[in-house]
Amino acid sequence: MTQVFVSMGFFPDDYFAGTVDYIAQLQDADGAIPWFEGGPMDPWDHIESAMGLTIGGHFDQAKAAFHWLKNHQLPNGSWLAAYKDGKVEDGTRAESNFVAYIATGVWHYYLVTGDEEFLSDLWDTVRSAMEFVLRLQGPQGQIYWCEDTTLGIQQDSLVTGCSSIYKSLECALNIATRLEKEVPHWGAARTRLGNAISEHPEYFDRTWDSKSRFAMDWFYPVLTGVIKGKTAQNHLKSRWNEFVVKGLGCVCVNDEPWVTVAESCELVMSLLTAGQYQQAVQLFSWLHQFRDEKGAYWTGYVHRDDALWPLEKPTWTAGAVLLAADALSNKTAAAHLFRNESVVTSSRKTSIANFNQD
Q1: Residue 30: closest CA among 69, 57, 1
Q2: If we measure between CA atoms, which residue out of 153, 157, 156, 257 comes closest to residue 215?
Q3: Which of 40, 92, 262, 289 is deepest in the core (most CB within 10 A)?
Q4: Is-contact 165 97, C-beta < 8 A?
């Protein structure tokens, strides 16, 4: 089994160069980053891939990815569910989690590059996206998962999606603070959202089967800073044996033998957020057996059948690998983004308080 131990101060650039190049080579001329050659793209995974390009120093291509979003944003601030070859592939809905994630990607790019002109250029895009998302906030603070283009707002919520939005609101507030923009309602909305996720599970999965079988529902509240400190450590420990297969990684769901690389990378960053560094290093070391000879990573592995499945190497999986490697090694100035929570107020005299310090 191939093992690579990435740790503080050690990011094997040569090893991951092919991973960055894989994303870059699949990017379309207009800046879109499909899942794989000839495949679709969606806004969230497109941004995850763009962050991988940023970590790898492909700044012009990362900017092109964000400008794709700027150029294709709908008048209401959203993007649709999927695109392919420059056209809408799935126009049935706009998902709140997908739309919000631009704030995370833009703030990540700024942290790495310090490019305030880029931040200013993308401000209106970020602002419009976050306003769309907050229009979908329910009365108890949860954010509804989508706006159907025919039926309107669909009034149910996902723990994973809302947790991701909680992080995106943090990044959006950081952007607003840096640019001295007044958005006090964003901070209030984030507080209400965090309370809904941590204190009111009854606000989620009301109209469909519970998503608690999914690993992301377990660790995303830790990854995104909703659950912190010792509570976060206990939370991860409580279901570790349900979701983690020793020597392989994290399964997607607790009732199927399917280990997935991207979810495993996000669990690595969740461990870092909870202060469990050595466990994160070990988990990440298991994942490189699913890397091809050029640096791309397979989606996942069905250990019951000893089979890679599906036979796809998504760009967003490569992006997740690079984000985890950066968080472990401290390679870039954005390495702390998924290790710490930065709580930001909404006035121009904002102070940023960092928790879970290294």
Answers
A1: 69
A2: 257
A3: 262
A4: yes
- Ranges of residues in the chain with a pLDDT under 70 are 1, 343-358
The reply to whether omega before 310 is within 30° of 0 (cis) is: yes
pLDDT at 358: 37
* Cβ neighbourhood burial of 353 (10 Å; 0-12, 13-18, 19+): exposed
Beta bridge partners of 238: none
CA distance 277 to 262: 18
Architecture of domain 13-355: Alpha/alpha barrel (1.50)
Angstrom CA distances, 62 to 30, 119, 225, stand at 12, 13, 26
Q: What digits encode the pLDDT tens for the residues 235-251?
A: 999 999 999 999 999 99
The reported pLDDT for the residue numbered 352 is 37
Three-state secondary structure call for residue 89: strand
Q: Report d(CA 20, CA 59) in Å as an integer.
A: 11
